[in-house]
Structure formats: structure tokens, C-alpha cells
Amino acid sequence: MRRILLPALAAVTLLSGCATQKQQAKNDAPFVWEGANMYFLLTDRFNNGDTANDLNYNRTKEAGTLRGFEGGDIKGITQKIKDGYFEDLGINAIWFTPVVEQIHGATDEGTGVSYGFHGYWAKDWTRLDANFGTEKDLSELIETAHANGIRIVLDGVINHTGPVTDADAVWPDGWVRTEPQCQYNNYENTTACTLVKNLPDVRTESNEAVELPRALVNKWKAEGRYEQEIKELDVFFARTGYPRAPKYYIIKWLTDYIRDYGADGYRADTVKHLGEDVWADFAKECDAAFAEWKKNNPGKVLDDNSFFTVGEVYNYGISSGQQFDFGDKKVNYYQNGFDALINFEMKYDANKPYEELFTKYSGILNSSLKGYTVLNYLASHDDGGPFDKKREKTYKSANILLLTPGISQVYYGDETARPLDIPGAVGDATLRSFMNWDDIKNNDETKALLAHWQKLGQFRRNHPAVGAGTHEMIANTPYSFKRAYTNGAYTDVVVVGLNLAEGKKTIATGSAFADGVKVRDAYSGETATAEGGKVTFDTPYTLLLLEKVQ
Q1: Rounded CA gap, 280 and 518, in Å?
Q2: What is the distance between the alpha carbons of residues 97 and 102, in angstroms, rounded to a whole number?
Q3: Diameter over CA atoms, the chain
Q4: Which of 222, 229, 326, 445 has the greatest number of CB atoms lying within 10 Å of its CB?
């Protein structure tokens, strides 16, 4: 991978310091991964920032509904950061789908002709896909995000290459297997197998040295970067002592994006389909790359946070604690490189009463998962059974997702009721429509919904206690609870009231606020004074988000 120094970004770097100071002046709360408000988007489906890169690699076949490239790109994400969209939504971390070069051809998995618009069909891990943008675009994105107090989480695939097409040959036998297909009923037939037909599985269990695929070598030579790639590989393998096995090549290629651009985290794809030792090595190299980037860029370092890793262990739930059960074997992925796992249980727990949900999550996160966390979601790009597929509970979804302990994952369009049921779309394509920007501009209901998500999101971002603190119910009727978070000299305490009456209302605040303390409702902007363990507000809303006035 070429490491590109971009003098043009000096202006962005200068702005970075100013914008970061502005963020700190507005709110001095530290960034805490355990309480992050993370936005997840499909790069191709979010925002088209550069129409000139919409067609590349002769991708001209007519694709099935929502199965071709639609123009979203890296510049589109950067544009929305600059516009303040994420700031207004209270987002302090963005995870977007992989942007490495995808297979050039298309395939039909029985759901219509499909291209790799989603980013999970890698052809070359060392180069960005032209449909998504350039190295300069990625550098500017991360610089701009950091300037606005936002961390960037990349999406990494080690498990498989892209499908074989008329334009994309299968990788050599030493690199991949094309059978058997996974059965998913024990450890071996979940890890040493292909996820689906025509998705070559990288032999990640192998420690046998392999040569680079001839097609990749020829590609690099044609692009004039073969010598640079080989030189970097020689340095990597000499430093680490790893054998030149497939998994270590890919780990090197993925961690370059940390080393070169300063990405803050990785979401790891299809975690349970690889041996846990692969992820331990991946995390080790991520940490090394992050340390190197910080050393080389001392003026750009945001804080002392370590590199962040979150894993997609499909069907893992928070109730399992640190263990995932394959039936014949249990694996602790937290002990093998992960700070967080995606919580597939959340969409079911969302049907519980607020207090039952909050108590459960706070209890687990402060006991069996102490020191770790989960990434909660209610909708996603590959979960066909989201909590609110018909978008009928959009306000409640915000309350649940943004007030539950753990990390909140806002799936693009949760905040705008982007439809998840598209006529003509088959399978997961229906979850991946283009972001409904027109609704934000023209639909009053969408504007009102977005405002609700913004208020809750900003409250979560400004108060680590919401996601990373301990939960304590204060009163059942009317319902109020306290969240408290302490880290060294920093302490954060908030009180939230839900299911309240419109108009005048009094809620118990317990010991959260001393008598005479001025309290602000972050939802309405109104202030009141705490007296006798209670506070009274007169607002037209049914919730209160209470913080001490600084």
C-alpha cells in the first residue's frame, strides 16, 4: 500500500485543532468507547459526494433491485460531517462498510445480478475501490472526522475473498477453499468452510507460507506499485516473525489503513467463521499500527484511548457474557482481541419494559462484561428481522437504543424512518436503500423524528454516564432513573424521566442533585431547581433528560 503524504491536507489539519478545541469548549466530557453513539452506514448508499466516480471497472450489467452501485462514496460521508449532520445527531463514532477494491464482475446468488456495492467482496485489500474514492478522500475523511470529535471505525474482512466471476478469478488453492459449505452446527463446520456457494473461504487456520497470487502480482505491476508492496511485506514479516500465511498477508493489508491514515477502530466481519487466534493476532497488529501512527503524528492524537475492536459474532447476545457457544465448543472472543461484540439480542430485549431492559444491561456490563462492552442495534444491513421493520415505533426505538447501557449503533436512516421494506428488493437488499435525504428536506414528520433522535443523541454524546455508567431506578411512577459514571477525577451524573405527562410534571431525582442545584432538561432546554430530591418542569414533552447546569 502506498503511503501518500498530502500537503493539501495541511489546511484540514490546521482546522482540526480549532474544531477540536471548539468541541471541548462546548462539552468537556471525555470520549468513552463504552458509551459511544456510533453511526453505521453503507458507503455506497449514504451520500454521493462525487458523481464522477459512479461507474468503474466496466460494471455495466443490469443489477437486481438495490444490488448494484448507486453512487455513495467517501466524499459523501465527509460532506455530511462538514455539514454538521453527525454533530447535530450527537454521533461521536462512524462505522462504514469496507472501501477496499471489490470484484469487478457481478454474480447472481439467486437474488438477482449483484455487484460488491456493500464492500464485503474484496479483490485487492491494498487499494481502495474507485467507486468509493481515493486514498486522498479517505485521508480527508479521517482528518475531518477527527476535527469534529468523531472517531472512525473501518470494516475488516479476513474470512473470504469476493465471488468468482467472469472478471475475477479464484485465488490459488493455498489461499482459499471453495468447499465444503458451512453447516453451522459445530466449531469446525462453522470455521473451515465457505459461508455460501461461490464465496471462497480464506484458509485462515493455515500457517503454511504461500506465494502471492499471480493475478495480484500482475495487477500491482500494471499499477506501478509492485516493488513498494513487496518491500512493505518484507518489512512486516521480518518485524513480526509471522509465516507468510494467507491470514497474515490480509492482517498486514488491513492494519495499513490504521498506520497510514489514523483510523480509530475496526469492526471485524464474520468473526465466528475464523479461529479466535486470528483475531488475537489481528488485535495485536492493530495496536502496533495505532501506536506507530500516534508516534508519527503527535499533533493529531485525540486522546489516550486504545485502538477499538468490535466483532460480529453472528447471534451472540449480551446474556452470554464473555462466552459464545458453538455447541461442541465455547469461545471467549473478548479474551482474543475484542473490546466489544455486536449484541444480536437487543432487538428482542427492546420489547421489555424500560426498567427491566436497563437493569439487565447495566448489571451484565458491570459484572461479567466489566471492562468490555456490547454494540446495541435495532436495525442493520443484514438482519432481516429488525425491531421495527415497518417503521411504526420510530420514537420508541430512539428512546430504547440511545438510553440503553452499552454502545448505541444508529443504522443510517433509523433517525429518518428510511424504509426497510422496498418493493422488488429480495433478501437483505431491502435493508439497504439509499438514504432518504429528500424526506429530511420536505417531510415535516421526518423533521420532527430527526429532531427527537438529535436531542437524545446529543444527550448521550455529552454524558458518558448514559452508555457507560451504572443504572439505578429512582422511582417507578412517574418513572425516573439515574446514571452515574466516574473515571479518575471525572464524574458524570444524569437523571432521565420517561412515560411522563405532557405539561407540568414532577419527578424524583433522589440524591443525583443536591437541593438548590440548577438542573437543565436537555430535551426542551428548560431549567429548574432541585428541591427535596425532586424537580418540576412544565414542558409539552413526555420525557426529561436532566443534567446539572454548569
Answers
A1: 48
A2: 12
A3: 76
A4: 229
d(CA 505, CA 458): 23
DSSP, collapsed to helix, strand or coil, labels residue 547 as strand
The x, y and z cell numbers of residue 227, run together, are 516493488
Give percent above pLDDT 90 in the chain. 94
Residues ≥6 apart with Cβ < 8 Å to 550: none
Model pLDDT for residues 109-167, shown as the tens digit of each residue: 899 999 999 999 999 999 999 999 999 999 999 999 999 999 999 999 999 999 999 99
pLDDT digits (tens, 9 = 90+) for 303-329: 999 999 999 999 999 999 999 999 999
Cα torsion through 338, 344, 345, 347, rounded to 10:
140
H/E run at residue 473: strand 470-475
What is the SS3 string spanning 406-458?
A: CEEEEECCHHHCCCCCCCCCCHHHHHCCCCCHHHHHHCHHHHHHHHHHHHHHH
Complete DSSP assignment for 64-118: PTT-S-----HHHHHHHHHTTHHHHHT--EEEE---EEEPSS-EESSSSEE-STT
pLDDT the model gives residue 550 = 86
Tell me the three cell numbers of residue 478. 412517574
Beta bridge partners of 102: 122
Per the DSSP assignment, residues forming a β-bridge with 310 are 267, 340
CB 421 within 8 A of CB 439: no
pLDDT in tens, 271-289: 999 999 999 999 999 999 9
**The amino acid at 384:** G
Count of residues making up the chain: 550
Q: Could you tell me whether strands 534-539 and 503-508 are parallel, antiparallel, or unpaired per DSSP bridges?
A: antiparallel
> Mind giving me the DSSP string for 188-233?
HHHHSSBSSTT-PEE-TT-----PPPHHHHHHHHHTT-HHHHHHHH
Beta bridge partners of 168: 165
Dist. CA 47–CA 435, nearest whole Å:
7
Per-residue pLDDT, 27: 59
Q: Measuring CA to CA, how many Å separate 33 from each of 76, 151, 215, 350, 493?
A: 25, 10, 40, 22, 18
- Find how far residue 88's CA is from the centre of its chain: 18
pLDDT of residue 17 exceeding 80: no
Q: Is the peptide bond before 478 cis (omega within 30 degrees of 0)?
A: yes
Closest CA to 495 of 504, 506, 482: 482
**Buried b vs exposed e over 106-122: b needs ≥16 C-beta within 10 Å?**
bbebeebebbbbbbbbb
Phi first, then psi: give them for residue 220, nearest 5 degrees: -60, -40
